[in-house]
Amino acid sequence: MIKAFEVFDTMRTANAGRLKEAREQGKKFVGTYCTFCPEELIIAAGAAPFGLCGTKEDPIASAEQVLPRNLCPLIKSSYGFAATGTCPYFQASDLIIGETTCDGKKKMFEVMNDLKPVHVMQLPHDPEAAASLDLWKSELNRLKDRLEEVFQTEITEDKLRAAMRLKNRETTAKRRVHDLNQRVPAVISGIQVLTVTWMSGFALNKEEIIEALEAYVDEALVKADEGLAFGDQNTPRILVTGVPVGLGSEKVLRLVEDNGGAVVGLENCTGYKTLRLMTDPDAADPMEALARKYLGIPCSCMSPNKGRMELLSDMITDFTVDGVIDLTWQACHTYNIESYTVAELVKQKHNLPFLQLETDYSQSDVQTLNVRIAAFMEMIQK
Ligand code: SF4
Ligand code: SF4
């Protein structure tokens, strides 16, 4: 048992209780729904960002009174939490930031704007085009203006460079958590990696969370040297890629680990997808450095999206992976279509077993998923 885990286990609830007091002390918050949101600008404006993507089924029925049923559960859950007033973090946010990533999300933001002001960034979708960099940089400047206006502050270059340093430190600390499982056998379960990193999104203060993440990894490394492990040399090592996953939508991860596997790698955007992307705080043009960083996120809403294939290949090697599961939320067209390319990469280039699972947040298909995952694990028993 890693003692430093306790702080993450209870973070969402504990920090919800601290929100009121923090606001009374003048603390400002910004709600975000995607890793494309440049948190550095929010920090430089003196506010704290929260990741608000909905990962629970509870508010979906309410969301369906406004949104179509045939929509990605993440979008419905995100809107449902906001509409039902059941997310204290949404309630505490002074501003919401969205991006034109997939069609469902960008149209949902139009409706969400009736509940609270949503600043939507226009995301270009070709990461390699020169025009994309110009457009994205101008969108970063538009966000900077909006933050300065809402928070009555000036985002100076010095504040921005300091925020870039802070965000780099947080990224490094999160990556160290994932990298624990490059060891064979794995040090911790995939569920624990998810809990630690996902809960970090509810931190009220970046310094606090960086310290907690570093303490966690330092303790885990000592315990690993003393023999702490999840599974053994023969445990099938699974890489999960695809859509974002958080606590409440982690059923596939649980089923893999209940069936004797170890989820050693999480490639999705709540996992490793952004963790190799850093900025140079001393860059001559820090806004351009930021723009380049975020355009490099290999999400399926980008086209072409070669970066995801490169990342997957590296992770398959670095995490000594035995099989890949590609998770798709129902009605997510971009990840669903891109699954074909991922399957080719995994089977042809790496000669590894591959399984695509399409599901939602409900428990209604757990039996079927369990049968498919059990068969997959049997196939790769070492
Ligand atoms: S999958 Fe892509 S669009 Fe969806 S939250 Fe992650 S980065 Fe954003
Ligand atoms: S999982 Fe797919 S459909 Fe859902 S928000 Fe992300 S990109 Fe959009």
Based on the model shown, name its key terms:
4-stranded parallel beta sheet, alpha/beta, binds iron/sulfur cluster, Rossmann fold, 16 helices, 382 residues
Task: Describe the protein's architecture and organization.
By secondary structure, this protein is of the alpha/beta class. It has a domain of 153 residues: 3-Layer(aba) Sandwich (Rossmann fold). The chain has 16 helices and eight strands. The strands form two sheets. The chain has a four-stranded parallel β-sheet with strand order 2-1-3-4, with helices on both faces. Strand 3, helix 7 and strand 4 form a beta-alpha-beta unit. It starts with 5 loop residues before the first helix and ends with a helix. It binds iron/sulfur cluster (2 copies). The site of one iron/sulfur cluster has 13 residues, from helix 5, helix 7 and helix 15.
Write the layout of secondary structure elements.
Layout: H1 6-9, H2 11-24, E1 28-32, H3 39-44, E2 47-51, H4 60-63, H5 73-84, H6 88-92, E3 95-99, H7 103-112, E4 118-121, H8 130-150, H9 157-179, H10 190-199, H11 206-225, E5 237-242, H12 251-258, E6 262-266, H13 286-295, H14 306-318, E7 323-329, H15 333-349, E8 354-359, H16 366-379
Helix pairs in contact: 5-7, 8-13, 9-11, 12-16
Bound molecules: iron/sulfur cluster (2 copies).
One iron/sulfur cluster binds next to helix 5, helix 7 and helix 15.
